[in-house]
């Protein structure tokens, strides 16, 4: 498999035939280039074979990477492994000096005894709670931007209040204006000696 798909013309045909049309339209297949990196764990390398091809976009900006993996036995967590490959390819792209994440399209070529392929290739389906996973990983992650939280609200944050208040104002030269609030928080007993020493 790997010896075939290392050949640019063969890989170009594979991608042209099997990549879904909306994604294929993004790719300039004349720029297809085999990338040297392999993202398989060392202990698994003797059993699996992956290839990473890069193409420029039709607009001429950025890159799209296609990770091609082949498999003869279905694997229940294959989608997660392919996601790991994708993130590794993104990191490699950033390490090369690029400033934006590339699109990485993982593709699986399957030729096993069980037919059709029995498992989902959406990694979000592999969670115990897929619906919750979709909410977490398809939207912005929770942000605690303490710089925009009013001090009065911070004062109600129980055991987090003292840390948040000091972190919010840590760049101020004069913290004397916070003395009353700090004393008030200390009186509530929501901070222990170890935490005070850390501050």
UniProtKB/TrEMBL annotation:
Domain Transposase (putative) YhgA-like: 1-196
UniProt-listed GO biological process terms: DNA recombination
GO molecular function terms attached to this record: double-stranded DNA endonuclease activity
Lineage: superkingdom: Bacteria
Family: Belongs to the Rpn/YhgA-like nuclease family.
PANTHER family found in the cross-reference section: INACTIVE RECOMBINATION-PROMOTING NUCLEASE-LIKE PROTEIN RPNE-RELATED, PTHR34611
Name under which the protein is recorded: Rpn family recombination-promoting nuclease/putative transposase
Natural source organism: Escherichia coli
């Amino acid at each position: 498999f790997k010896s075939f798909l290392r050949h640019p013309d063969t890989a170009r045909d594979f991608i042209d035939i099997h990549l879904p049309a909306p994604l294929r339209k993004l790719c300039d297949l004349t720029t297809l280039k085999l990338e040297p990196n392999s993202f398989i764990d060392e202990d698994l390398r003797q059993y699996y074979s992956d290839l990473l091809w890069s193409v420029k976009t039709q607009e001429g900006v950025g890159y799209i990477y296609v990770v091609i993996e082949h498999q003869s036995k279905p694997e229940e967590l294959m989608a997660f492994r392919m996601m790991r490959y994708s993130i590794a390819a993104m990191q490699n792209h950033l390490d090369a000096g690029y400033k934006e994440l590339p699109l990485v399209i993982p593709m699986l070529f399957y030729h096993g005894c069980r037919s059709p392929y029995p498992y989902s290739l959406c990694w979000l389906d592999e969670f115990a709670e897929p619906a919750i996973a979709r909410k977490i990983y398809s939207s912005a992650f929770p942000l605690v931007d303490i710089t925009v939280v009013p001090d009065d609200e911070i004062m109600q944050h129980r055991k987090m209040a003292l840390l948040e208040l000091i972190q919010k104002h840590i760049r101020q030269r004069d913290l004397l204006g916070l003395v009353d609030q700090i004393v008030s928080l200390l009186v509530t007993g929501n901070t222990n000696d170890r935490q005070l020493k850390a501050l």
